[in-house]
Specification:
9-stranded mixed sheet, alpha/beta, Rossmann fold, 6 helices, single chain
Length: 247
Amino acid sequence: MKILVCLTKAPDTTTKISFTENDSKLNEAGVQWIINPYDEWYSLVRALELKEAGIATDVHIISVGKADVEPIIRKALAIGGDEAIRIDADSNDSFFIASQIAEYAKANQYELVMTGKESIDYNNSSIGAMIAELLDRPFISHVLNFNIQNGETTSVREIEGGEETDTCPLPLVISCQKGLAEQRIPNMRGIMASRTKPLKVVPASNSEPLTEIISYEMPPQKSGVKMISPDNVDELVKLLHEEAKVI
């Protein structure tokens, strides 16, 4: 069984965000890029665990981006991926990205496509579902636990107020979240091996984006905190009526 793991780059959480070109583009100067944690810590590592258990034969990495995405792809190879594919395109449109990945997955007959539940930059949580729709495959989201036996998958996913257990035959698309696997750190042997593992650059297919970013804006600064004495209930009630905002 071949597994395709989808990765995207994201700014490190300590990055100071600013914008350029009339607030229509992220200012990438000085930005430290990392693998989106949901893709790396849970999706990629669980795929590697399936290979180590003898269930999967190959774990391939795919990302849509320009050459600046290759360092994070190499890190994924250092962690244990067998081969990587970079689709040569630059877009933030979810449909465009999903269509590129779906076309490659279909042409290369991957039985399982895995994504993180969301990216930590845009938080749109839409790529996995779009890939599944384009491939005409079942999709299971927010997976906490996942196993495969005799060509059938059993997964536990988070739902409002509890958990849900699903069974589904392959082929399948899943999105992964915290709890599915534990983070791995690449060792020196893996880092050295990653330099010789194949990283194919594939031209983008003929797919048009459906959305366009008009502008970004920073959230308003938080106002100061007013401390009220526990004994001053009247003042607290007054402030709740006059100044508190419901969000």
